[in-house]
Amino acid sequence: MAGLARVPPDRWYNRPAPPVELEVIESPPPVPPPEPVAAEPEPPRPTPRPRPVVRALEKPPEPPQETPPPPNEEPPEPPKEAAPPVFGVTLDSTVTGDSAVAVPVGNTLATRDRTPAKPGPAPGPLAAVEGPPAFSPVSEMYVDKIPVVLQEVKANYPDQARRLGLDGKVTLRVGIDRNGKVRSVKVIKRAGHGLDEAAAQAMWRFKFTAAIAKDGRPVDIVITYNYTFQAP
After folding, report:
1. Residue 194 within any structural domain of the chain
2. Residue 174 belongs to a domain with what CATH number?
3. In a domain, 189, yes or no
4. Rounded to whole angstroms, how far apart are CA atoms 105 and 91?
5. Which residue in 1, 42, 134, 160 is a FRET match for 8, CA 20 to 30 A apart?
6. Average pLDDT by consecutive 10-residue portion of the chain (232 residues)?
């Protein structure tokens, strides 16, 4: 509840004002900021090691690939080197067996001498020729009659075999011409102790009949003969 009171004006204006006390407070001087502490120097960073330079390896050049031949075609043959000329007859022109004539084997019948031969004398009348002079034996398959011994020669018994009381048999390849004469002797199976040499020496003195071919003419031939020794 509020009320109003009347105050005389004289009391309001003549009243002395109360003294005002002021207290001055001086502010303290400002505190200087603390000096900054020097930071410790950072340790030096290690120098980074240089990375090894990796170089790419160069691939060796690939060998050139040969172009394969087209299908259903044979590859071409490499060129063959020409064989040096060798004087003689071809191997197909020779025969096996013993022969008194030796012919070289080669790939040409031409000689190195190209000097033209001097013309010989004019040919005279043809003379009669009984047969080829060379010993040229034929195979037994073309022979109708084999040579037969006409004269046998007894060989001398070697002293070494005689002392030992040895018997023996020597196998020989004997060449007989169309006249029955011995033309070649070769030991193919030995008995030793001097028997081989004694048998070969005796065989040279043998005499035979001529071999007769199926057409009825005498021919040369090579036969196998066994010479037997008996101790005395």
Report:
1. yes
2. 3.30.2420.10
3. yes
4. 6
5. 1
6. 58 60 70 69 75 65 70 66 67 60 63 63 54 80 94 90 88 95 94 91 95 94 93 78
Rounded CA gap, 120 and 125, in Å? 15
Alpha carbon separation from 171 to 140, 210, 224, 225, 227 (Å, rounded):
18, 21, 7, 6, 6
Number of domains composing the chain: 1
Per-residue pLDDT, 75: 63
Residues in the chain: 232
What pTM did the predictor assign? 0.43
* Structural domain of 159: 140-229
Determine which helix (DSSP H) or strand (DSSP E) holds 198, and give its type and residue range.
Answer: helix 195-203
Cα–Cα distance measured from residue 144 to residue 218, given in angstroms and rounded to the nearest whole number: 10
Angle at 130 between CA 220 and CA 211, to 5 degrees: 25
> Among 89, 228, 102, 222, which Cα is nearest to 168's?
228
